[in-house]
Amino acid sequence: MAETYHHEPPYSIGVICGSIAASSINRHLARALIKLAPDDLQCSFIEIDTLDLYDRDRDDDYPPEAVELKRAITEADGILFVTPEYNRSIPGALKNAIDWASRPYGTNALSRKPVGIIGTSPGGIGTAVGQQHLKAIMSFCNAPLMNDVEAYVQWKDGLVDDNDDVTVESTKEFLTTYMQAYDDFVRRVLTVVPQA
């Protein structure tokens, strides 16, 4: 019989914004999602803007920023990626952070972490292609993916106000549903997937 792992809420969720720009619309969306999260999801940002480019020659002597990234991901119960789409893929800064987090071989901090992926862009496809690339990467990193609710948000000026509140009621309801679904997904994964 498979081992079960019972982890009780509240759950610590690391939120990683794929853009490092202070004015990022995805960071605005991430802050709004944190406000909409159920009480049992305690969300906080994991920042990626201070990381050097990944270099395997440093695998035996990880820089402090990369050590901190791996620690934050390891200690989180789940990871929520909120990311733009650059050139039909994910931003280089995000890919770089994933490389640091998942290496060297055998020390992948993302393994078995329940992952949610969401993003926004002014374009109609709302980061759909970039999210598919990120899902492929997360699959290789052995991170369980929430796929039953997908969220490709088209950004309009004023969608999120200065208080991080979603101003369009239908969008607010959808994003609330997304965060409730992610909460349920985290619970299910942490109940049935033994954690290392």
Structure write-up:
- The protein has about 200 residues and is an alpha/beta fold.
- It contains 5 helices and 5 strands, in the order E-H-E-H-E-H-E-H-E-H.
- Strands 2-1-3-4-5 form a 5-stranded parallel β-sheet.
- Helix 1 links the parallel strand 1 and strand 2.
- The longest helix is centred in the C-terminal third of the chain and has 24 residues, at about 170-190.
- It is globular.
- The model has no long low-confidence stretch (mean pLDDT about 95).
For the biggest sheet, the summary is: 5 strands, parallel
Radius of gyration: 16 Å
Summarize the amount of helix as a percent range: 25-40%
- From N to C, what is the helix and strand string? EHEHEHEHEH
Approximately what portion of the residues adopt beta-strand conformation? 5-15%
Q: Structural class of the secondary elements?
A: alpha/beta
Task: Name the average pLDDT.
Answer: 95
Number of helices: 5
Trace the largest sheet across and list its strands: 2-1-3-4-5
The termini sit apart by: 18 Å
The strand count comes to: 5
Unreliable stretches covering 5 or more consecutive residues: none
Question: What form results from the Cα inertia axes?
Answer: globular
